[in-house]
Specification:
The structure holds 2 protein chains of 2 kinds. Helix content of chain A is 0%, strand content 58%. Chain A has strands at 4-7, 10-14, 19-25, 30-38, 45-51, 56-59, 62-67, 72-77, 86-94, 102-103, 107-112. In chain A, strand 7 and strand 8 (72-77) form a beta hairpin. The radius of gyration of chain A is 14 Å and the shape is globular. The termini of chain A are far apart. By secondary structure, chain B is mainly β. In chain B, strands 2, 4, 5, 6, 9, 10 and 11 form a 7-stranded mixed sheet that branches. In chain B, strands 1-3-8-7 form a 4-stranded antiparallel sheet, with no helix packed on it. The termini of chain B are far apart. The chains are: A mainly beta, B mainly beta. The interface between A and B is medium-sized, with 24 and 25 residues.
């Protein structure tokens, strides 16, 4: 089955700096890669996703890149703000409805002002 | 915006008791999931459900667990005889015709 590795487990940055979180996946059949943000005590919220026919996707301060050959994908947050502080999870899914979305272990991002 | 709703938000139970966690998925979604998250750990897949049957389940989803869609709206997770290690946040999720999963707000289960 799919295995998703995520690092770092914790990341501390100063406000305004960039943050990068990296994930690798094992199943070459996976072709959908979402990123979720989870604030303390709350549900995971989808912040951005990318499909395997795309190499990069941007949404304001957030971008995701995908290297299918190397089976890794990354989340980039620019101009970080204190409200970006949360746990971020990457995930991978095979293109087959009803199959499991498998999560990485999460990265706790702390942005200090 | 439509949401996945879960009840109760908190459930406290004694070890060995049965619990039923309830979810109302987004109305036009067809695929339903249960995930759990032990405090401070990652979100773990339990089971997926489509067309009134389980389509995939993880090793965690043993004989103590069952899922059901008793009517057109509710989706339930039953734990037959709870153990201390079942204490976790349980998230329901639903998925429409595209891959995006939407999570409910979770049920915090505490087994004493």
């Amino acid at each position: 089955g799919e295995n998703v590795e995520q690092h770092p487990s914790t990341l501390s940055v100063q406000e305004g700096d960039s943050a990068v979180i990296k994930c690798t996946y094992s199943d070459s059949a996976s072709n959908y890669f979402p990123w979720y943000k989870q604030e303390l005590g709350k549900r995971p919220q989808l912040i951005i996703d990318i499909r395997s026919n795309v190499g990069e996707k941007k949404d304001q301060r957030i971008a995701v890149t995908l290297n299918k050959t190397a089976k890794h994908f990354s989340l980039h947050i620019t101009e970080t703000q204190p409200e970006d502080s949360a746990v971020y999870f990457c995930a991978a899914l095979r293109d087959q409805a009803g199959t499991a979305l498998i999560f990485g272990k999460g990265t706790t991002l702390s942005v200090s002002s | 915006e439509p949401e996945v709703t879960q009840t109760p938000s908190h459930q406290v139970t004694q070890m060995g008791q049965e619990v039923i966690l309830r979810c109302v998925p987004i109305s036009n979604h067809l695929y339903f999931y249960w995930y759990r998250q032990i405090l401070g750990q990652k979100v773990e897949f339990l089971v997926s459900f489509y067309n009134n049957e389980i389509s995939e389940k993880s090793e965690i989803f043993d004989d103590q667990f069952s899922v059901e869609r008793p009517d057109g709206s509710n989706f339930t997770l039953k734990i037959r005889s709870t153990k201390l290690e079942d204490s976790a946040m349980y998230f329901c999720a639903s998925q429409g015709p595209i891959e995006k999963l939407f999570f409910g707000s979770g049920t915090q289960l505490s087994v004493l």
